[in-house]
Amino acid sequence: MDESRIAPAGPWRLGPRATRLFDLAFATALVLPSFPLAVLAGQSLWALTLSLLQTVPLFWRRRHSALVFGFVAAASVLQAATYDIPTWGQVAFPAALYALARYSSGRAALVGLGVGICGAAVASWVWTSEQIAAYPPGLEYVDYDIGLDDLSPYFFTIAAIVLAAWALGSQARIRRAYEASLVERGRQLALEAEQRAVLAAAEERTRIAREMHDVVAHGLSVVIVQADGARYAAEKDPQVAVETLGTVASVGRDALTEMRRLLGLLRGGEDPTLAPQPRLEDIPSLVTADDHVELDLPDPAPSVPDGVALTAYRLVQESLTNVRKHAGPHARAVVRLVATDDALDIEVVDDGRGSSADGSGGLGLLGMRERVEVHDGTLEVGPAPGGGWAVRARIPT
Known about the structure:
It comes from Aeromicrobium choanae. By secondary structure, the protein is an alpha+beta fold.
């Protein structure tokens, strides 16, 4: 089974090559401004180095998100300890945090969020202290104590950026996991649907095989019995042989017609010339002139579901085939159908040698039992009282 053929298409995403180009362009767009901005702001070479230490690792943020975040966070700590003025490299932290929340686990994302909030508090204190210390000596602000009013604008601004990066990355990770689960669920449903179709086809092939067995076994058994009779009769009464051969031809044509119908089912065709399914009215056609079979059938035939009628027909057909094969040349049989309000009783009893059990383990009995059980019916097969063989079935209607 080709799973790729039936798997549903997932949501649109960049291909591997486009993803690599996007990562390269994004990281380059954050690295290159470090040079002109450092020059325009009059920052030192160390400030430029700090910016590059924070932005360059973003080239690998997708494959190694946790390692890149750790490196960027360490570079940010180094900047806070050695350089008190914000630099362009600070933009790398939310980008690294987004990548951590997007491509790593939820636990790692929470750790990154905690680091970011702590970093926001430290950066707020460092930058506020640097601004106050930058006032000229002698002013009243020299001994100024930093309060919450001074820290709050910096802290909440930085914390908002950190929280937004974490939230966007986490949402993207959750959405992708949800999409992946939907795609997998769709694939499983498609596989289950195909498996059900395969099982249904196998069941239908089994049913048709039972039909074919019934048709071929019955037709050939009648042909063989009639042909043997014609061979012996030809020596004494050629006219009887001619009539018998006519019966053989008729049975052969009927069997061929049913085989064409079954082959039409296998081909999936809808040929209107094919014969319909056998019914209860067709049971007398199973008995030939040379058979010693008594029919006890209700007249008119009771109205039963098509499936029940077909099952009854095939059960009688298989039973008479076994009578011809096993009961002996002079065996007599009785076919009896009794219809009640809620069931159809079928009985085929012969007075032959009682050796029909020789074929009881074959496909014929198995097919009969399966047909009856499909309709929640019961089947009893075994020696009849006083000798012979009996087949009795009860099929709910």
